[in-house]
Amino acid sequence: MRSAQDFLPAHLRAFFTCDVLRYIVFMRKFSTLTVFTIFSFCFSAGVQAVLVPQPVGMFVLPIEGQILDDDVVVDSDALLDHERRVRDVLASQTDLGAYHPALAERWLLLAHEAMRLGQSESAANLFQQGLHNLRLNSGLTTDSQIDALTDWITVLRRIGDSKALSQQLSYRYRITGLGAEAWTDESLKYALEYYDHELSALAVAQWYAIGREVLNFAEHLEDVVHRACRGGIADASACSVLVKRRLQLLYLISFTVEPYVEDRQALPVYKPRVLQERSVTDEQLANMERGAFLTGVRMMKEAIELNPGNDELELALADWRWFYGRSGDAVSTYERLAEKTPELFAEPVELPNGLISVSPLLASEVAQATFSFEVTTRGRVREISEISSTNGARDAIRIKKGLRELRFRPAMDDSAERVKVTVTKTYRETRSR
Q: Domain boundaries in the chain?
């Protein structure tokens, strides 16, 4: 039997054959592209579905510490005398010049006086005047300014000026060694205050505009930890506190990086050729996130080997494993520590816990709510009941959502067995969604 093509001229048969081949090639490419797009979309969705729990402090934080305020009973005569002395210094500034060396000490004395009178905002301005004068006349990195700078930092913390506080903590950290020299008690204390403030700020920040800053901070903290924990100059005491700060950052990275990169680099279903490539910063952060768990485990093991018998480090490593759902090794450590120090497990606590020092809350209006809820033996929150909130249901709903996403270290009974516990606790919102 002859096909239809046999009745066509030779040149038409060639054209027809070529057209059919092009159609076959096109359909194969289209099928391949469709399958690739579907698998990529499903893989992306699957990755987002298995995100780690939410670290405490990113959206909600338990209210447990003292609240700072400036409710100081002030002697009106003392306050008037203080204002008179400020006017005297301003008059001297006119006569001597704004940056005369003799004025620095007088500004700083007035700043300390304002602190005693409970005038925090005035004290902050006076410290700024005095330190600016001191830096111009004595240099930017002199030790003579550290005491005054530390007092200024205390005032900035009281008034809640986070940006200025970050700048001055960073400045003090730089002039006391930047973590590059052998640690002293003083330089380590100042470094930890700087790290803790930066980590607290990163927990509530939007990372879209600060990816490079996050990466730089992470790399710097990694270098600092390596110097303290490795080699012939290892410092066990410094290592044990520094690894906690880096572990806190890994908690933040493990939760924050993947959604932030995925949202920016969402895969279009039908436009694979116009995909924007990830920036170098995004790719480096994504690599950190992918390796965060193993990085944390290795780092904590090194610190424990350097400082054996340190229960705080053992507990921090167990919490890290528990947070990632690696319950086997975590539970065995919990049981051992519960037999030794049962008060650590008297009640469930949010993770991460005990890695940084959290500043006392400022006396301000923030959304908060009190709940009764159950923490299971796996550290999950169940059966949440609202008791009270600052703005009715609206605040409670947002805080409840954050609470449900946390992971708790479980409570344990006298026989070191995990137990289900009902908890009543008040939480505040640290940022809106």
A: 4-49
